[in-house]
Amino acid sequence: MFDELGEFLGSANTRAAILGDLGQHVYLALLPLVVGVVLAIAIGAVAHRTRRLRGFFLVPANLIYTLPSLALFVVIPGIIGTRILDPVNVIVALSLYTTALLIRPVIEALDSIDASVVAAATAMGYRPLRRFFAIQLPLAVPVLAAGVRVASVSNISLVTVGAIIGTGGLGVLFTDGFAREYFAPIIVGIVLTLLLALVVDLVLVAMRKFLTPWQRGVST
Amino acid sequence: MIEFQSVTKRYDDGATAVDDLDLRVETGSITVFVGPSGCGKTTSLRMVNRMLDPTSGRILVDGKDVMESDPALLRRGIGYVIQHSGLFPHRNVLDNIATVPMLSGEKKPRARARARELLDVVGLSEELAERYPAQLSGGQQQRVGVARALAADPPILLMDEPFSAVDPVVRDELQDELLRLQAELDKTIVFVTHDIDEAVKLGEKVAVFREGGKLAQYDEPSKVLRQPADEFVAGFVGRDRGYRGLSFVEPGAFTLQTVPTTRFGEPLDGPTRDWTLALDEQDRPRGWLAPGTVPDGVVTQSALSPNGSLYLEGSPLRGALDSALSSPANFAVVVDGEGTFRGVVPSQTVLETIEGSKPERAADV
Fold first, then answer.
1. Within 13 Å and on the Cβ side, how many CA atoms surround A171?
2. In whole angstroms, how far apart are CA B340 and each of A203, B195, B301, B311?
3. Which of B19, B140, B163, B277 would be a feasible disulfide site paired with B171, CB 3.0-4.6 Å?
4. Is B153 left (phi over 0), alpha (psi -120 to 50) or beta?
5. In whole numbers, what is the pLDDT of chain A averaged over residues?
């Protein structure tokens, strides 16, 4: 098997192709992550305000996440008018998933903030929008970060499905390997997907640390 | 000046939090709102800076109806301190203090320089400047909370049970600090508490609220204690209001008596005949030796009966009585501002003085 792997990776063309797949995978997984985080924060901030709004946003969010990804990849072109093989389909679908997945953590993160801190901010003379960005959002980071880490892993794994409808990414190595009954690309694909998930996770942990200097040396 | 004019606050569920409140808070004074929980004291406070709006009636700050002000701008002009300090956990001490000046458009270096000065004003070391709130003790957090409320130099301070979450010793310190600060700053302070002792200690005026958001009595603290307006106030002030009332009676100078003394940490000359007070090198009382104590090496803490409380010369009668009652020797131990021993007053004399002050107390109410 190692021979197969060596042979597979021995080719400069293959290595260049894999690198291209990896780049495409990062793009397809992380752009929706960013879009989803922004959307979920916007929706969560609104939903957080009343119980009724919570239900209004959380129920559809849960439903969206239960839709099979492959179905979504195929249905989206019909809705937004893209070609079936357009990577935009994957980006839109994963942005939807990320948003759906993160609305609850955003609400929980905002709920986790001590009410007296928010009351104090209001009493100091913060207007709601500025209070949100200056006080609530920074304090939501610790709880929110946990949700973002889950979403990043979910996205990185879901992008592989996109290969079936031909949008590239490391999933290509799987479709390739299965089609040819050739295990080397499958193993390389699995290892790279895992490594990518791990590296992105480490970056997210580092970002969280950077954004929450006040939590250093304090048990959380 | 803050004026409540027929202010009523009713919630959507029909509950009345504040019922037809008429009250005037004088400029430069500390007014304490006190009462059991759910009596509307905090609600009343929060209507001053429009954290809540009244259902009917008006609240005037310096003659202007607060409802005519932009809430955010109104709040920046009114200092606010809450229970558990409400500090921003993600900002260090300086940035917390600089909050309101920064909101009002002050440049960061100037706001931080002012914040640094305020550390000293509220009795905090400059070493704490870069710490985050979680790295401070409860008492320190409250001091930062007070500094933050003072940063924009607002004429009015609203304090909502600010000291209720700290231990009694620290609370006492913070109360003394507030009185010291107020002597310098001369703010108009509205202070909410459920603790009648805190109310009578801090308040120049005390407003006692009862359930249903009704004002039961609004008076000087000594009057609230001595002449409760009704059964409710009498009950709330408590059974020992007679004792608390002594907080407001300044005795004439007591005639001090002497007792045998000995030096702490040195040997006794011989067996003690009477109660003997052990003093340290600075003549500060350390404790009593019972009559008939036989010399056994030097006088150590274990040989002593504790002092009980010490009575600061010239302070209200309550301290003298407490010292007399808590002393094993039936003497109130009198010290000066430095803690130096001045003499003793027999319990009997303290009680007679209290008796003697009664007609005068009755006369001034």
1. 22
2. 63, 32, 18, 11
3. B163
4. left
5. 89
B87 in contact with chain A, both atoms CB, cutoff 8 A: yes
Q: Count of CB contacts below 8 A, A vs B?
A: 68
Question: Is A152 strand, coil or helix?
Answer: helix
Q: Which residue, A93, A62, A70, is CA-closest to A171?
A: A70
- Which of B102, B103, B130, B164 is most worth mutating to test chain A (most A CB atoms within 10 A of its CB)? B103
Q: Do B76 and A124 touch (CB under 8 A)?
A: yes
Q: Is the dihedral of CA A182, A187, A190, A193 positive or negative?
A: negative
Domain boundaries for CATH 3.10.580.10 within chain B: 261-358
Chain A nearest C-alpha distance from B339 (Å)? 40
Helices A183-211/A137-162 angle, 10° precision: 170
Here the tokens at position A179 are 């089609």
For residue A151, what are the domain limits?
A: 2-212
**B80: which chain A residues are within 8 Å (Cβ-Cβ)?**
120, 123-124
User: Phi and psi dihedrals of A111, rounded to 5?
Assistant: -65, -30
pLDDT in tens, B300-347: 777 788 877 888 888 888 888 888 888 888 888 888 888 889 888 888
Any idea what the CATH number is for the domain that residue A15 is in? 1.10.3720.10
